[in-house]
Amino acid sequence: MNIKPADRRISPAQAYAWMNEHPEALILDVRTASEYNAGHIRKAVLLPVDEIDYKAADVCGDKDALILIYCRSGVRSQTALLKMLYMGYTRVYDFGGIIDWPYGQE
Questions:
Q1: What is the mean pLDDT of residues 5-14?
Q2: pTM of the model as a whole
Q3: DSSP β-bridge partners for residue 45
Q4: Which residues contact 50 (CB under 8 A, 6 or more apart)?
Q5: pLDDT band, very low/low/confident/very high, at 3 (cuts 50, 70, 90)
Q6: d(CA 38, CA 45)
Q7: pLDDT at 100 over 80
């Protein structure tokens, strides 16, 4: 499988637009629980990158659902993106880090 992470990288503005256009989209925060608890994007679900291999099916469900992934700076989200693509998720996108997210946090 020849997957290029750059093909699945979108801007925070694009992610925000998709979140508004597709309220059913799953927003995945792949940071640690303590990072998530310190502040996260509205409606984001915590799934630490180290737990994707064994928890993705429970958390994400439908492999054709729109899934938008972020972390702190964009490194872990890229790793998570690759893992999920290799697991067969078809509509998964990485929008980088929360440090570049200008739309507020909870």
A1: 89
A2: 0.94
A3: 28
A4: none
A5: low
A6: 14
A7: yes
pLDDT of residue 7: 83
d(CA 66, CA 46): 16
Distance in angstroms (rounded) separating the CA atoms of residues 71 and 96: 6
| pLDDT, averaged across the chain | 94
**Cα(41)–Cα(58) distance, integer angstroms:** 21
The b-or-e profile of 60-98 (16+ CB within 10 A means b, else e) is beeeeebbbbbbbebebbbbbbbbbbeeebebbbbbbbb
Instruction: Give burial (CB, 10 Å; 0-12/13-18/19+) of 44.
Output: buried
Lookup: tokens for 91: 């509509």
Q: CA nearest 70: which of 53, 85, 49?
A: 49
Q: What is the per-residue DSSP string for 65-94?
A: SEEEEEESSSHHHHHHHHHHHHTT-SEEEE
> Which residue type sits at 15?
A
Q: Average of pLDDT values for 18-42?
A: 97
